Structures are given as C-alpha cells and as structure tokens.
Amino acid sequence: MGLSFDFIHGGGQLAELIKTKDWSGTSIGAPESWPESLKLAINISLNSGFPIAIYWGEDFTLLYNDAWSSIPGDKHPWILGKPGTEAWPEIWDVIGPEFQSVLNSGESIRRPDALLLMNRFGYVEECYFDYTLSPVMDTEGKVGGIFNAVIETTYKVINERRKQLLHQLLLSNLERNIAESLINIEYMIAAAKDDIPFSCLYTFEDHQFEKERMVLSTGIKKNEHLKAVWPFPKGFDNSSIYIDDLDKYFTEPISGKYGEPCTEALIVPVTGGKGKVNGHFVLGVSPRKKLDEEYRHFLESVGLHIGNIFLGC
Q1: What is the pLDDT of residues 73-90, one digit of tens each?
Q2: What are phi and psi of 291, to 5 degrees?
Q3: Per-domain residue ranges for the chain?
Q4: CATH topology of 3-152 equal to that of 156-312?
Q5: Residue 187 has what pLDDT?
Q6: Hey, is 242 helix, strand or coil?
Q7: pLDDT averaged over every residue in the chain
Q8: Which strands make up the sheet holding 143-152, listed edge to edge?
Q9: Is the N end or the C end of the chain the one with fewer CB atoms within 10 Å?
Q10: pTM here?
Q11: pLDDT value of residue 309
C-alpha cells in the first residue's frame, strides 16, 4: 500500500482489499498505470451503497464494492482481479457476448430478472438478476471498461412463481369431481418443474393407513417401479420426511429441468380440515436450489392445498 492508492477515498472492506492486492500480475497492471477513468469508476463504486462491479480492459478484469461482495458467494474475495472468463466460466457464454457488445458499440444493456445459472456455493444455482452494463469511456473517448450495477432478484422471481402455483391449486379447490381434480393437479405440478422436478401422490386405500396407492405422478416414467417403499409416517402423524438418497428408491435417475439428477425429496402429508392426514405427496427438490426453510414451507403448502382439494370433492 502506498501513494499509488491515494485516489481511493473511503470504500470499506473492498477498498482495503484493492489496496493490499498485488495487481502487477493482472492485465490492468500496477495502479500507477491505471487511467483516471478507471480510478473515478472505482471511487464511485466503493462509495455507493448499491451493488456495483467494474470490468476493465479487453479481458474484463473484475473490481467491485462491498455491496456487490455477496453476489459471487464463496468466490469472494478470490474473484477480485480475475478476468471475466475466469470469474464466471459457468455463465460466460451468456454474459460474455453482452460484455463484448458494450465494449465494441459503446451502448449500454439492461437485463431485468435475467436467469443466470451460477456456481456460487459449490453447486450450479438458479439465480435471477436485474442488471445494467454501461460503458466507461477512457480519455481517448474509447470504451475502457464496463460499469455493472446489479441487484439480485432471485427471491422475488422464485417466490412469485411459487405463489402462482399455490393460487392455482387454491382455485382447483372449487372442483367437485375427484377425477377432474387429479387431472388439474397433475397438469399444474408437471408445469412447475422448476420447483417440483418430480412428484408421486399417494392416498389411503379404503381409509387404511397401512395401504397407500399412487394416484398421480409427474416427472417419472409411468411404469417406474420403486426399489424400496417410501418411509411414510404412520397413522395421524402429519410431519414431513426429508429424503436425500433417491437412488435407493428409483431404478433410474430422475432428472431436473436442466438435466442434473435429483438427489433430494420431501414427503409431505396431504392434510385437510383439522389436519387430518389423507395421504402423502413425494415432492422432488430441484438440484438448482437448496432446501431451505422457505422452499420446505412451499412444498408443505402444496400438500395442504392438495388435501383441501380432496376434502372439497
């Protein structure tokens, strides 16, 4: 650290990381050689409370501020100073052409709620972002780099999608015919493959807890035979059961929307009325999302809505 970083004022943790990093091994070189336009962009980003990244030069060397540091997940702070292709190899086929377009044309790009399949926490994750790519001009009037303002909208997009499915199931409660209801349920669950890559709905046969038969399935072959019996709760137990060894049950891997095999599922009770258990719904978990509390609550709500549909038929 020295006089070469006198241009940085404030900026929090990332200001210190930028100052202590050895930039001589990067394409943008030591800070003494940085153009004024880059220094100005860095200062603006470091002192902004909005997530901002700067990609500089022909290889799009990455710098960013504190607010942006959560976006790359476990890649922070390793990702600081990396070329774009090294920072984001899993999505460069999508964003690389956009970056090159801004560099070549000098025209900005806006992408609202854009899907980017990113590897941030050791697995490829379904992520959504509202972002802009704006040119930063150098002293010669050429594009020296890209100013990337971004906000993650993953929660908003996925939550709205899940709410829409629950609303559709709620409307299906108006049906009074069980056969029509099952057709509608199958159609809606099959269309929700982003969140429910496969499903198997079981109801009690002749109201006997020890006898459950499958009345509906999505995302699996119709003639699929299970290698093992699902560990359904007994009697009136309305707790959910987490499954993390699906290969124990299926003869062939069950793929999610993007081709990866599913490894997890949640068995949720199909309840209605005063919590009475009418059956169980085996719901696949997307390989592209972790089964957090919100995801679990959504799947359990699906079971509750299905139970209400049966209660009304």
Answers
A1: 999 999 999 999 999 999
A2: -80, 80
A3: 3-152, 156-312
A4: yes
A5: 94
A6: strand
A7: 92
A8: 61-64, 52-56, 143-152, 124-137, 109-119
A9: N
A10: 0.91
A11: 80
Please, are residues 181 and 165 in contact by the beta-carbon 8 Å criterion? no
SS3 92: helix
Burial of 80 (0-12, 13-18, 19+ CB in 10 A): buried
3-class secondary structure, 55: strand
Q: Report how far apart, in Å, the C-alpha atoms of 299 and of each of 30, 62, 162 are.
A: 52, 38, 9
Buried b (16+ CB within 10 A) or exposed e, 10-38: ebeebbebbeebebeebebeebeebbebb
Backbone angles phi, psi at 276, to 5 degrees: -65, 135
Share of the chain residues as helix, strand and coil, in percent rounded to the nearest 5: 35, 25, 40
Contact 258, 288 (CB under 8 A): yes
pLDDT averaged per 10 residues, the chain (length 313): 77 96 95 95 97 98 98 98 98 98 98 98 97 95 98 98 95 75 92 96 70 87 80 84 95 89 95 76 96 97 87 61
- Domain 156-312 = CATH 3.40.720.10: no
**pLDDT digits over 56-67, tens only?**
999 999 999 999
Q: DSSP label at 25? A: G
pLDDT for res 4: 83
Of 105, 106, 124, 102, nearest in space to 115 by CA: 124
Q: How many CA atoms lie within 13 A of 116 on its CB side?
A: 27
Residue 133: φ, ψ to 5°: -120, 110
What is the three-class DSSP state of 226? coil
